[in-house]
Amino acid sequence: MGMIYAARALSSVELRELRADPSLVHRLIAEQTADPRMSLDLDKAWHGIHVLLTGNHGEVDSDDPLDLAILGGTPIGEDVGFGPATLLTPGQVKAVAAALREVPRQTMLARYDPEAFTAAQVYPAIWDEEDVLDGYLVPYLEDLLAFYRQAAVRGHAVLQMLA
Question: Residue 150: helix, strand or coil by DSSP?
Fold first, then answer.
């Protein structure tokens, strides 16, 4: 199956419930929301998108809002497959959304280098296939941008996980 990224925007009520009971991680991620824009599934594209956002193939800077977008946040709950889920506060979500608006789309797309992705072992190992950027990464990148934009506007927290 592999490492799949999923996230969900949380209202203030859901955030309080999760903090009181971290075992709710799976239920909250799996639960359908009234607004489908409040859930995000990046499939296996998460690592490639992280590189497009940050230009970084490896280490994560916990202070950089762009690193928070996929790989950051405060761990919460038990291991969900590849470590615990992580939680971004509404303030962090706003910072991520603002940082995403500041990075020019062309800058992100210019970071796509199939040979460098392969050499750095960016997950998944598909970078030699045809149309990976436009047919795979870009649609998920657009979903991520819209997700954070909506979550920030609504003042939501974000719960994210790799499973």
Answer: helix
